[in-house]
Structure formats: structure tokens, C-alpha cells
Design a protein that fits this description.
271 residues, mainly alpha, Growth Hormone, Chain: A, 2 domains, 10 helices, globular
């Protein structure tokens, strides 16, 4: 699952860039997006055979479906917390990466955007190389330990990236980060399946989705505050390097909180 997710991002990045370079490229990109989104939706509806399920909620009132007794599932809660924090690290980097390249490497906007495209491609390709081995390892070894390893790679790559002054070093460290993120993309799905409440699992997977979407709001806001305050005091170079460093703290905290999760044994039911 993680492999297809990263593959889609890579193809979308390259395909979008190629379309945008053509006459009326934005129009064609929107049309392509609409065709793919709706076409694949129809394929899913027609080909995926989903067995009918009976509601497990005794209370059939509409409000009962929104009842979430999360206190009963502490391991699931800790996975939520950890994934939220780790994604905050990711979304602290993404919105400010172009500004980092402009001010830390003293590049023009056009060069920074080219460098950004190269870094994004390297991250996704290295992630693709790591995601399947990590998923296979997650079936044999502790998923928590693999997440520790992925966070360590992300921390190491993030520190080296923040300290670097060479575009070549930036690409190399981005590859290290990509390996960590790719492996995490596989194992975090496996871990949540391991601790997912078996009662109404789809509803709890909906809650789990917040651990990816909410950081996209919280992390850029906090990163922007850090960039603004440090830039006013020490300059834009230090300001955006500090933002990258702050992402490292998120990854460390995410790895710390995953320690409280108790994985089910292999012979117990997973989703």
C-alpha cells in the first residue's frame, strides 16, 4: 500500500511538471486529474467486491455512530499521537523548503524550484526503494523498532540537511530522509492495523486519518511562527535552518511516544 502511494506521488509529480510545461498546461493537468480521480473511482466501485456488513452498534440513533470510546483502546491512541507528531515533522519541512533553498543556499527562485523538484523526486524514489522491504520486515519483526529506525534516519537526514551548504549534500541527505519516510509509510499502516479496534474498524480508521490531515494545518502555522521570529532576530538563513531543525524535534517526540504502544502477537487478529 505504501509503495503504490509513493509511486502515485512520484508519477504525479513528474506528470504534473510535464503537463505544466505545455501550452494550456494547467487546464490539461486539471482535466487529467478529474479523469483519473473519477475513472479510478468507477473502477473501484465496479470491481471491488465488498461483503455486506451489519451494524455492530446496538443504539441505532444517528448520534451513536459518532460515539468513540477511545479510552478503551490506549494502544490505538498512542499510535494516533505518534503518527500525528511524526507528520507534524514532515509538514514542518514541506511548506518552507523552497524558502530554505533560497535563503540558506542563496539561490534565485527559478534555481530553487528546480532544486526543489530534484529533492522531491529523490525523496520519493528512495522512499519507493525502502517501502516494500520495510513492509516485509514489519511482518517478521517489531513494527515499533522499524519505526524507531525510520525516525532515526529522518532525524539524521534532517540535521545534515539543516547544516548543509551544498546542493549536492542536500540531495544526498534528502535521499536518506526519503528512505526513512518510505519505510515509515509502510510500517505505520501495518502498526495501526495491529492495534486497530476490531469493533467498527472503519470508523476508527476515519479518526486515524486526522493524524495525517490535522498536521497539515498545525505544522505550517507553527513553522511559520518559528521562521518569522528567528528571521527577525538572526536573519532568514538562520530562520529557515531553525525550521528544519524543529522538524527533527517532532520526529524524536514521535519515536518517543511509540514506545507506549503494545503490539498484538502475530496470531491475534489484525485488520
Amino acid at each position: 500500500m505504501g509503495m503504490w502511494q509513493l509511486l502515485g506521488r512520484t508519477i504525479g509529480m513528474v506528470g504534473g511538471a510535464l503537463l505544466l510545461n505545455q501550452p494550456h498546461g494547467l487546464t490539461w493537468m486539471v482535466i487529467t486529474f478529474a479523469l483519473l480521480l473519477n475513472g479510478l473511482m468507477l473502477i473501484t466501485v465496479m470491481l471491488v467486491k465488498e461483503p455486506p456488513q451489519t451494524p455492530v452498534t446496538a443504539d441505532r440513533s444517528p448520534l451513536a455512530f459518532f460515539s468513540l470510546p477511545l479510552k478503551e483502546y490506549p494502544d490505538f491512541n498512542w499510535v494516533l499521537v505518534s503518527r500525528f507528531i511524526i507528520n507534524c515533522g514532515l509538514y514542518t519541512i514541506l511548506p518552507f523548503l523552497e524558502f530554505f533553498l533560497i535563503y540558506a543556499y542563496h539561490q534565485g527562485e527559478a534555481m530553487a524550484r528546480e532544486q526543489l523538484a530534484v529533492i522531491g523526486l529523490v525523496v520519493n524514489l528512495c522512499g519507493l526503494a525502502a517501502v516494500f522491504p520495510a513492509g516485509a520486515a514489519g511482518d517478521r519483526f517489531s513494527k515499533k523498532r522499524i519505526i524507531y529506525f525510520t525516525c532515526a534516519l529522518s532525524v539524521g537526514g534532517g540535521i545534515a540537511f539543516a547544516l548543509s551548504s551544498s546542493p549536492v549534500v542536500a540531495v544526498i541527505t534528502a535521499g536518506v530522509f526519503g528512505i526513512g519516510y518510505g519505510a515509515f509509510s509502510a510500517v505505520d499502516w501495518a502498526l495501526v492495523c495491529n492495534v486497530l479496534p476490531t469493533r467498527e474498524p472503519a470508523k476508527y480508521m476515519g479518526v486515524w486519518g486526522f493524524s495525517d490531515t490535522l498536521p497539515q494545518i498545525v505544522a505550517p502555522f507553527l513553522g511559520g511562527e518559528i521562521a518569522a521570529r528567528v528571521t527577525n532576530q538572526l536573519g532568514a538563513d538562520i530562520g529557515y535552518r531553525t525550521v528544519i531543525f524543529s522538524s527533527v524535534i517532532w520526529f524524536i517526540l514521535g519515536a518517543f511516544f511509540i514506545r507506549y504502544v503494545r503490539e498484538r502477537k502475530a496470531n491475534q487478529k489484525e485488520c
